Each structure stands twice: as C-alpha cells, then as structure tokens.
Amino acid sequence: RAKGAGRNRYRFFEAEMTVATQVRMALEVSLRPALARGEFELHYQPRIDLADMALYGMEALIRWNHPERGRVPPQQFIGIAEETGLIVAIGRWVLLEACTQTRRLMDAYRRQVVVSVNVSARQLALPGFVDEVREVLARTGLPPGCLELELTESALIEDIERTASMLRELKRLGVALAVDDFGTGYSGLAYLRRFPIDVLKLDRSFVQQHDEDVSTLGFVKAFVDMAHALDLAVVAEGVETAEILEFLRAARCDQAQGYYLARPMPLDDLRGVIEAHGAPRLQNS
Ligand code: C2E
Ligand code: MG
Ligand code: MG
Ligand code: MG
C-alpha cells in the first residue's frame, strides 16, 4: 500500500513538474521579444529617510506586461532571464530607463533623489559594465551620486578580486553601492569589508521576524551600530506596519522601504510622495 501511494505521489509530482516546465518554457519564448515589443516598464518604490521621513530616493523595479498573461512578477522571469543571458539586454534597458526617468523627475520637481537599480551577477561579470554605467550617466546627465547599484551577496562571492576592483572603479565614477537582501546569504559584515560598499539593505524576512519577537530589538540595534561603525548605512526592506517602523527608528536604522510607507508605483505618482514627505531641493545640477 505504501508503495502504491508513493507511486501516485510520484505521478502527481511528475504531472506538476510538467505543467511548471511548460509554463516556464512558454515564458522563456515570450521573454525573448518582450524588450523589442516594449512590454517592460519600471515602477518605483519610495525609500524614506527615518531621521526626517523625507523621500531619500526610490528603487526601480521592473514590470513585465505580458500580452496574454497580464502582469508577470519579476520572481517568475528574472531567473529565466539570468539563465538565458537575456538579463544583460534587459538590465541595460533598466539602467538607461531608470536614469532617464530620474533625471526627468529631478528636473520637473527640482528635488534631489537617489535611484537604486538592481544589477544581476551576469551584468556585473561583463567586462564592459563600468563603461556602460559611465555612458548612461553621461547620456542622461544624471549626477553619479544620484545612482545606486544594488548587488546581491551571491554576485559578490563569485570572483572576489575582479569584483572588488570593478566596484572600486564604480566608486570612482561616484555611484553608490548597496548590498541587497542582506541577511539571506552567507556573508557577514567582516566579509563585506573587502568591497567598497555604502549601504546594506536588510532583507524583509529579517526585518519582519522582529514583528513576532520583541527581544530581538537589541540584536537589530547592535547590528545597526556595527554597520555604522563600518561606515555603512542600513536600509530596512519590507516594512509593513507602524510597529516595525517605530522599532527601526528606535534601532537608529537609516532608511526604510515597505508597503506601510509606499508600494512600488509609476514614476508620475511620485509627485504625491514628494508632496507628502518632502525631498531635498535640487542644487545646480
Ligand atoms: P528586491 O530587489 O529585494 O526588491 C524588493 C521587492 O520587495 C520588490 O518586489 C518589492 O515590490 C517588494 N516589497 C517592497 N516592500 C514590500 C513589503 O512591505 N512587503 C512585501 N511583501 N514585499 C515588499 P518585486 O518588484 O516583485 O521584485 C522582486 C525581485 O525581483 C527584486 O527583489 C529583485 O531581486 C528582482 N528585480 C526586480 N526588478 C529588477 C531589475 O530591474 N533587475 C534585476 N536584476 N532584478 C530585478
Ligand atoms: Mg533590490
Ligand atoms: Mg531587496
Ligand atoms: Mg528582498
């Protein structure tokens, strides 16, 4: 009987796998022409300074408007894009679009904001990546200090020497560097000291744990203090409640993003956020 149940389970699993594989293959096929067909757009999630609750900047997040499936979430296609190498062309588009739109936003409202762009390991591995960033900044006129690149811990462990020297080149351009989803990978703060990182983005799973367990306040406080001692700013991701926001302010976390503050939105909707929160005035740039 146990054997039979096992076989059924196996068949069920196999059928499920087939459906998943089919969906994945269909997505892969429609992902190839998506860029040329203009099916991508960027939404922006505000990042708020916890000291004064002003708008510090925003994270550019890709959205795919699939002609038949509607909106496909990044979790369903970024992995495919990385495996197929399509992420290189998509990432190039994201960088140019984010810098172009941010320059436009700054000019329209005369406010200074920092745009964060997610960069995949495949992009970072390209020999011409630093040149690409330099060219996009020159072409769009975005001040380098208004661009932040978000890297994952896994991108940093690949080829440490090469990556470190490339990040130093990016720093010389004047862009900011952040480690995304910090707390989910293997690296600790000591490991990150090899790289010229400015910002740690604490992963939402890490931030949200503290909803349930108040005793961890001391731990987060200690973490933020340690990051500050290493000259790193800390951004909390996934802030969904007023309690967590208060908790993070008490821990002297620098900035926060999350649904409680604002969801990702089209560029034009940032006007409302600027009006509600304020943002530093744009100097002459
Ligand atoms: P990420 O870079 O860690 O981005 C944060 C994700 O958390 C976003 O999901 C955002 O919508 C979501 N989020 C923000 N606040 C909250 C909250 O309070 N609660 C919850 N539950 N979620 C929140 P999104 O837009 O679906 O993107 C998912 C991931 O896809 C990103 O994670 C990033 O790894 C990747 N991604 C998105 N856009 C790009 C891109 O242009 N290039 C690359 N390489 N990856 C991207
Ligand atoms: Mg990110
Ligand atoms: Mg993140
Ligand atoms: Mg995350």
UniProtKB/TrEMBL annotation:
It comes from the Bacteria. Residues 24-278 form the EAL domain. This is EAL domain-containing protein. It comes from Massilia consociata. The chain holds residues 646 to 930 of 930 of the full protein.
